[in-house]
Each structure stands twice: as structure tokens, then as C-alpha cells.
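A reminder before we start the practical. When you read a complex entry, don't treat the lines as separate problems. The point of joint prediction is that each chain is placed relative to the others, so the output describes one connected object in space. Small molecules and nucleic acid strands, if listed, are placed in the same frame. In the example below there are two entries. Take a minute to note the order of the lines before looking further.
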Amino acid sequence: MNFEIKDRDAAGRICRLKTKHGVVTTPNLMPVINPNKLLITPREMKKLFGTEVIITNSYIIKKNKELNEKALRKGLHKLLGFDGTIMTDSGTFQSYVYGDVDVDPQEIVEFQRDIGSDIGTILDVFGTPDQNKEEAEKGVKETLNRAKKSMKLKDDMILACTVQGSVYPDLRENSARCLSEIDADFFAIGGVVPLMENQRYLDLVRVIISSKKGLNPSKPVHLFGAGHPMIFPLAVALGCDFFDSSAYAKYANDERMIFSWGTEKLDDLIDLPCSCPVCSKYNISELKTLEKKERILEIAKHNLYISYAEIKRIRNAIYQGSLWELVERRASSNPFLLEALKFLKLKENKIWLEKFEPVSKKKALFYTGNHTIHRPIVYRVHKRLLERYKPSSKDIIVFPEGEKPYSSFYSKEIKKILDKNKTLTIIVDSSLGPVPIELDEMYPFAQSVFPYITDAETEEMITEMFDVFVQGKNVICWMGEETLKEIETVNVGKRELDVSRVAAVSDMQFGTRASEALLNGKIKIVKSKKTGKIRNIYCDGKHVLSMRASDGLFTLKIDGGRVLHNFFKYPKLRVVVNSDAVSFVKEGKSVFAKFVKDCDPDLRPFDECLIVDEQDNLLAVGRTLLNREEMLSFQNGVVVKTREHI
Amino acid sequence: MNFEIKDRDAAGRICRLKTKHGVVTTPNLMPVINPNKLLITPREMKKLFGTEVIITNSYIIKKNKELNEKALRKGLHKLLGFDGTIMTDSGTFQSYVYGDVDVDPQEIVEFQRDIGSDIGTILDVFGTPDQNKEEAEKGVKETLNRAKKSMKLKDDMILACTVQGSVYPDLRENSARCLSEIDADFFAIGGVVPLMENQRYLDLVRVIISSKKGLNPSKPVHLFGAGHPMIFPLAVALGCDFFDSSAYAKYANDERMIFSWGTEKLDDLIDLPCSCPVCSKYNISELKTLEKKERILEIAKHNLYISYAEIKRIRNAIYQGSLWELVERRASSNPFLLEALKFLKLKENKIWLEKFEPVSKKKALFYTGNHTIHRPIVYRVHKRLLERYKPSSKDIIVFPEGEKPYSSFYSKEIKKILDKNKTLTIIVDSSLGPVPIELDEMYPFAQSVFPYITDAETEEMITEMFDVFVQGKNVICWMGEETLKEIETVNVGKRELDVSRVAAVSDMQFGTRASEALLNGKIKIVKSKKTGKIRNIYCDGKHVLSMRASDGLFTLKIDGGRVLHNFFKYPKLRVVVNSDAVSFVKEGKSVFAKFVKDCDPDLRPFDECLIVDEQDNLLAVGRTLLNREEMLSFQNGVVVKTREHI
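Here is the predicted structure of the whole assembly.
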């Protein structure tokens, strides 16, 4: 199996999974194919929706004499008429619905292997939400037992091992950890259907997070039985890669139409609130008066159009770095989804999510309500502001929020202040918290859109952050000339805002005191002639940093890398590659997962980093795609893009 | 012109407008057709999107010799190849863009009339947001002047008169009032394009509300130049009926794709996040590599698919009573839309919106964030709770929120309490505020979905409401047996919860003390055998009320109507019809707009009402569709559905 990350946002990711029957892009959806009763053929799905992967039930095939024989003789792919990737389920869900199934756990894995399934599934023990902890633990143990035995039988089939543990976070995490230890190559999060059915999204989120915490991050994760697109964005943001949908057909049978905001009975509609080919082909009365079988088929198609559109929307959001915006938008369509989202405000969840959060995004951060301020990116910049930014004086001048960038909006005032007193710290009291004027072009301070009035919760959080930031300082609210008169004249030394900016951004990005090293010499700052923005920074004639116009963050040049490498002790900012990779990296090639030996635990996705050999010799500088835990787990794909080498 | 309301929600409505070329359903969208350069033909639009109405520019036609002649000779409909309704613009927008236009205000109206436009537009004076009040006022006056003169020239053409007044609410309201006074038959709200372009949605909302306040509510309202579907739900919720879109083509020319959540450049996408026929036909690389002209055409189609889908979504939401949910969902996609929505929290806006708010809806009220608690329906029920509900004792037992319906969830506890003390008031401290146990099945108390935790603002509002409700009372929190021991035994009289329920709902629905009249006799309550819920109420053998299972509100029977008619003085609950209608109503026919002479100002859409003649003789009981102001303005359509007659 080959599984690699291509892009990411929140704890979600776009990956490529190679199977025996091709490449599958995640996040993705597997429509459930009932081998007894094909509603839409897989072939047609591929044509209409670009379906890359489907799922069917090996238990049903095994139990039906005709299907069984045909599957063994011709293979699963011929049986279903699909040449793409096929996953099989094992009968676990049937055992949940009917109490038990008449099949041996090992036999069913062998059967899946023998009919040529690309991704088989163990026969796990379905843990229901109403189980007590003891029952749930028993199920987890038995599931692990079966997984161990099944792993020996799988051959070259990918085998999905299922995390169970009911609604107990510690059981879930433990189940996940044990399955990771036996080196399962694909994970399913099981037992969530009853949570979905009862809109217990808060419990669902708890289950996903605790499972993810225990799972090897380099393997695909399938949220088993989650087929309503309403849940897709949140589940992806928490690290799920696959969904399966029997909902498209089940809902269609009841004449219920799936939408990104929920479900509507056809009978409750007076117009088709949708632009999909089905809803564009018919008007509502035409659809309502179709022959019943035809109508169900058309609704099933509609349901799949909507589900796949949501998958594509999620991939775009990951690419643009707007997955949280999508998650929050979707949450506003359902009170329980909103409740689930609020659970992410807990500090332990922020800490977990922050590890996966990219340091910068293509799209601006959009305020969508009182959840926005709890996003991991905000948690991170607030933390870094307190840890890494050093105010230059005890006196802090505070401007109210103005237009962005603040340093242009308040340029006259800032000049007057600095003419009188070089040491004063100047900040803006913004909707995102205190923004030192030197950091006003840095993501996300400049790349964020807040309305003038936010909400009580956001304001409270921001006020709290502000208070911590100015603790022990003397706050002076800017009141124009009046304030100017009150400022004590201190003109010792000189303070250029440009240099302060380079220093402050360096510290925020590379760590406390990074600026001491990077700016230890004669500094030359080159600005863009067109925009007047800082572009390149030279120290003693050496090009150490470039500032990106898009996010106000630095690209580290190899000479800057040398400085930071000398200054910061191992493992800070390092990605360590083994000897096999050294010559490649020295040629400027990117770093592949399997060559990584170690990594600074503080590096985050899209951070600038130092690539070193096992003796900590600097080889190159680059940009990470993964955090430490991921780098050490993944076997495939580029994990650091090398930018400049020695 | 014939314009009638068919259904409604918030201050929005579904109407039918009859023009010379057919019937148009509102809300609706008019794609802008450039007569010089047809991108998609109107004929194709009709086929693809079911386009009922288009808009084109008469100024452009007039100024082009060839088009001018052809239009006059063959007529506008032949010129554009469209047999549906066509609206024409007058050149006002050109005057805004180019500073001036070379056309006489009356001449252009005559020209529109002569080429057979269904809906013409006066040449109004475009008021920009940066005008000072004096300039804006001048424009308003000149616009009114031209409107007056133009009205004389219009013949049987519908003539859109444009509300101006820049961003000054009093000017807008006055402009609207003056245009209503000259009996204009169609209104446009003009000068909003610069607000749309700069995402000044808060100002846009202010403009719409102040304009609507001055407008005759029985006429169609067109939000001129608003073509992005992101704004449609909110604008409709505030009473706009028509939009026009040049955006579909303008954005397509820049390769920008319109979505319900905003706009995306094709270049910024890695996948087509949409299910429309265009996005289902191509994958992203196919679309990106189409020949440019073809690509622009396909994006234009996509833009229209999306825009029309939003219109249909809005109509559905009105039908289901979930327009606020849609508005709030959309607001979460854009910080400035969210800001605009917050403006509706002002008490004066709540008071205005409450007049249009239906008393009941098909769908449950969904919590979507801290705006939900500010909806007009919540404002209304809180107001009525304080004014109309009379607690039966100084002691109030308070239960925490439980499952709905609360009276079932707490049935054992309630029985124990009432066994000991018949007089105690029992309420639930719910997410929607205090809910007396007798009202727990009434809309929206039962028909609402809130998560367990809401938000700081909602909790504050609810606490405030709670405090006002219990003011001067003795609050006893239910603590089980302990509380029971503390309750003083009062068993005088008897209190049956069913009777209390009938009384409390009557008072809430019909007004303070309505229950004294309706229950003044021997009461018999018939319940549904299936659900155990109250169905029919008899007083002294007469069937006075029926309770609807769906919303827990009463349907008024004719005998109940008699009682209320005797008890309440004129004009309470009355709709007065003139003598022409008396015989029809007496036969059970519904009341048409033109027969209404007067109406209780406290009646709201979907309220139960008494239909009386001009001497206040009771003719029938029915259910209103309009509020008083609307009843007295509308000329067409059913305004009261007669239910039972004398």
C-alpha cells in the first residue's frame, strides 16, 4: 500500500492511496453497492460522478450461493462490473442489526482476499453507544484479537482494522493504539452509525478525536457508516479520509433528498432547491409524478451528486486553507453540529488540533461566528505572541482597530510617536487580539476578515488575551496630539520599523531570539518598488530571508539557515535525514518520508526548516509538509520541499 | 397589474405577478440581457433554467439605430426572441457609471412603452453612498418629479419607480412613501450597486428596511443591481421580490464562479465544488482547458444554475417557514453578511419584522447561533408571555430543560406537585426562555431544536427574560422529593392540566382573558386516542376550538368565534369586509383583498380571525394571510381563508 499526503488543512488532508486497481484521491466517498440489487451500476457511477472507489458487502456475497461462486470464479471486480478500487465490508454491521452473523472471522477475511477485494475489513465487534464500559472493553479486545489473526491472512489485500470502544475516549484511543501497533494498513472507525442516526454529533466528534489520537497518522482512516454529507467537512477536519454511503439509496427509497444542510422529504418541497443535473432536468411536479421506481432512481442520483459535490468542496477548502470556514458554515445548519463544533473549544482539543494546523493559508481567515476565535491558528498565534514577542518597553501605545494594514493606516501617527520615543511598543487592539505594529502584515493578522462588531464570546476572549499581553505594562490609549504630549522623549539608539518588523516576525516564526542571530550584523532591507513591502533581508551582505507578500512570513534562505543552525541547538528547526538521502538533498532534491530519522517536535506543517544529516550537519533549508509524528510514520511521499541546499 | 401573495415567511413572500406576457412567481431573478451581445439567448435560459422574466436596457436599444428600429417595428419580445415577461432599465445605471446620459426622462419611458416592455423603469437619479444629505435629497426630489411625469405616459406598461436616498434612512423612507402616494405599481430600490460592490451589507440592510417601511406593501419590490445569490435570502427576508443579475456574465468574463457562499476564481480551484450540470459535465482540468469563449459561456451557465437554485431554495424555505434558518446559514459564510444580520437585533427592527412574522411554521425553529434568539418569533412569544400569560400563583416551580414535550418528560413530578398544591405555576427553564408547562406543546416551544449549550449572548437574553418573567414571584427550583416536602398543601378547587393548557394557549393566541370567555361553561376536552393529545374543546356542548397537533395552536370554530366576538370589543380579532362580500363569506367563500374594509392591527399572518361585516355582525371565522397594513393595500388574492361560516 502506498499512501501519501499531497495537501492539508486543519487536521484534514488530501492524499493519494494506491491500490491494486488504481489511485484513489482522499477525502473520498465509497457508494455502497448492494450486490443483490444494483440501483445504479458502478459503471454508471464512474461516468456520472467520477467514482474512484466503491464498497460492497462480502458477507452478503458469501452467503448467496450464486454470488459466492461467481465472485470466486470471476473475481469481485467482474462481479460488480467495476475496474476501480473496491472495498469490502465483513458482516459486522449485519451482526449489529441482526444480533449475530453466521460466519467465522478468519474465514470472511480469507473470502475477501480470495475474491480479490482491494480493501478488506476484519469482522470486528460492533460497539454500541449504550454499552457499559466493561462490555465495550470486551468488544475492543476481541476485535484486536481478530485483527491480529486476520493480518496474517490478508496477503496483498489492504486490510481495514476497526477501532471500537463505544463512546469511551480512553477505550477508543487504546483500541486505536493497539491496532497501530500490529501495523494495520488501513483503519476504520466503527460503531458510529447509531450516533449518526440520533444526531449525536458531539459524541461522534469525541469518538473521532480519541481514535485519531491513538492511530498511526500515516494510514487512511474510514469513518464507517457515515454517509450524510452534512458530517463530511467536520469529520475531514478531524482527520477522516473515507466515507461510505448507503444513505444515497436508503434515503431515496423513502423519497428523501440529501442536501449539504440536511435532508428533505420530496413531499415537503414546493421547488427543487438544487442545481444538480437531476434537479435541473425536472421541475418538482415532474419529479413527483415520475413512475415510482424511476423517481427513486433519480433521487438516488441526486443524493450522490450532492454527496460528491461536498467531497469536492472539501478538497478545494483544504487546498485553499478554508476548511474551518466550511466546517463552521455547515455547523450553522444544524444545532447538534454546532454543539459538536463547540466541543473543539476545549483546550485539550485545541492543543491536539494545533499540531496539524498549517502555519499559513492561501485564503484569508473569515470570521463566521463565535467559534472562529477558537480555531487552532488563533490559539497558536496568541500563544506565540505571549511566548515569542518581546515588547520593547513598559509603555504600550494602543490604537483602536483601523483599516489593514494597520502600519499604513496609522503611518503618520506612528512616525510622530517614534520621532519622540524610539522605544515605545505600539499595538492595535484588533478583533483578533493585540497586534504589535511590526506584525501587522503577518498571517493571520493581515489576512483575516472580521466585522466591526463580533460577539460577546469573541470579545471576552480577546479582552482576556489583551489583558495577559499587557500585564505589568503601562497601557496608553492613543488620543492624538494629547497622547503625544504625554509621551516622554527617549531618543537613544534608533528604531526603524522595518528592522523591528523583520525581528518580530523572525521571533514569531522561528522562535524566541531568532532575530538576535539573523540580524547580528549590518542589515540591508530591500523593498518591492511596486508595493513598498519588505522583500529581501541581507545581513553582512548575505541574503538570509525573503518575505512573502501573500502572508507576511519569511522564506528561509540557505544563509539564513546557516545562521539559525549555528544559533539554535539540536533539534530546534531540524529535520534529520539518514545517510541514504544526504546526497540527494545536497543536490536540492526534496525529502521523502522514508528517509526521515527525526524532527523537531515544534515544527508544524508548512514551517520553514533546516535539513540536517545524522551528525547535525546542515544540508539544506526547506518547507515541511508534515509534523514530527507524521514524518516518522509516513512511508511515502515528499515530506519536506527542499528550497536551497549547501 | 395583478400581484398577490401566495405564501410567506419572515418579511418575505411568494407572490404571483401577472404581466402582459404571463405569470411570474416571486422571489425571482431577471438575468440581464445585453441586446448588443447575447451570451446565452433568453430562449435557452428558459429551457435550461425555467427563466420566466428577463431584463434588458432600453437606453442601449434606443441609442443603437438598428436595435431601435427593430424594437419599434417588431417589438421588444421579437427583438430578444423571448415570449415571457421582459423588464427594461432606463439608463440610470449608465448615468451613474458615465456621469450622465443623453436621453430625456420622459422620452425613455415612452420608448419603453412603445417597444412593448412589460415592466418599464423611470430614469431616476442614482444616489451614491458618498453623497451628502443635501445632494441625496435633491436626487430624491428629482426622481419623484420624473416618476410623476412618467406615470402619465406609461399606458398599460407596468412602471418601476425607484426609491433613492443614498444611505439616509429618513430620505429612503420618504422617497418610498412619496412614490407609494403617486400609486406607482412596481418599486425598485436603487443606488445599491456600490454597497454590494464594497460588501457594505449592513448599509444595504438599512436601505432595504427604511425603503420597505415607506413602500405600499402590495407592490413588487426589485432590489436593483443585486445579482449575487449570497444576498438573496436576506434581501427576500426583508421583503424584496426581484433581483437582476448581470453578475452571471460579468463574473464569467473574469472566469469567476458564483456560489451561495461567495465567489471563486476558476484559477484558485483544484476541483469544481458544485453539482450543477456544468460542473458535473466537466472535471476541473477539462473546464480550465476549454477554448476561452466556450469556457466563459459554461461559467456563465454555472453562475445562473447557482443563482436560480438559490431562488428555489428561498421559495422552499418560505413554504416551510425556514427562511430565517437559510438567512442565518448564509450569513455564516461572510463576515459582513453576519454583521448585517446583527443589525436586525435592534428593537426597532424586531418590532418592524414582527408584524410580518407568521404565527406558526411547518418546520421547527433551528438554533444556528447567537442570532436565533433575536428572531421576530422569539420576540413575539416573549412579549406575549409577559403580557398574556398569567401565572396562577406567587410560587413558581422551575424544572431544568428536559426532553420535549416537557409535560410528558416531567409528568410524574407534575402529578405529585398538583396532588399537593393545585395552584402552583410550573415552568421549564428552557433554551427559549421560561416555558409554562401548559404551553409546552405550542409553537415554537415544542417545535424548536436547541443544543444543550448555546452561547453567551443567548444565555444572557434568556436569563434576562427569565428574570422579568418571575419578577415579584417566589422561585422554587425543583429538587425532587425535597421540594415536594417544602410545598404548602393547597387543594382548594381543582386544577386540571388539560384545562389549564386550553386556557393558557387561548390567552397567548387570542389575547389576555380570551380563556375566560371560551371556557365559561361546562368544558369537555376530547383527546386523540392515538397520541393522547388534546384535539377538540367543547363548552356547554358547543365545539369552540380544535387544537392542531402540528403546532399546538388552536383552530377557531364558528361557535368559538361567536364567544370571542361577544367578549372582545371591535376591532379585536376582526377582519371587516364590505357589503359586496357578505353573501360570499356567508357561503363559506374566502375573503379577497379588495373587499377588506378594516382589520385588527394586532392580527398577524396565519392568525385565527373573526370575519365581520361593516356593522360588526359575525359572518365567519378564518385564518389570515396578511397583516392589517397589507390587507388594506393589496388589491388581489385571498387574504383570509374562511374556515366556518354562520
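Discuss with your neighbour: The CA atoms of residues 621 and 644 of chain B lie 6 Å apart. What might explain this?
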